[in-house]
User: Which sequence fits this backbone?
């Protein structure tokens, strides 16, 4: 089995001691990302602003690894405060108005997130067979 790792790329957050994505056998695992700019600096904002930037990072990393947004099959959202769950659902519905086209999702609250972030998102993408 060959494993392809994405560690950097134009517009991707950098400076981490781990791969941004790892792909094997047509399945790509995108590392959790909070609201970071390409230099890896955290951008504090509203919950929706942070969610949008975290999702942007995840989709850019997936793209750099050779996967389209439509190939994202599973998303894990970690929130710092579970009371933001309804805000996450509202944001999610705008991204995926038709639930039949939305990836599966798991959401949970963490005691704290890196950088003091409000949300961190990770994903799994897969090429169709």
Assistant:
């Amino acid at each position: 089995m060959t494993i392809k790792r994405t560690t950097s790329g134009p517009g991707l957050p950098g400076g981490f001691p781990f791969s941004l994505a790892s792909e094997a056998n047509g399945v790509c695992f995108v590392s959790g990302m909070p609201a970071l700019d390409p230099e890896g600096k955290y951008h504090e904002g509203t919950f929706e602003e942070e969610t949008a930037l975290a999702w942007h990072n995840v989709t850019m990393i997936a793209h750099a690894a050779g996967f389209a947004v439509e190939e994202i099959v599973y998303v894990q959202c970690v929130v710092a405060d579970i009371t933001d769950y309804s805000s996450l659902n509202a944001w999610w519905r705008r991204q995926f108005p038709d639930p039949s086209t939305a990836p599966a999702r798991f959401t949970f609250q963490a005691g704290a997130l890196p950088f003091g972030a409000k949300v961190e998102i990770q994903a799994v993408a897969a090429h169709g067979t």
Summary: Strands lie at 4-6, 21-24, 27-33, 72-79, 104-109, 119-126.
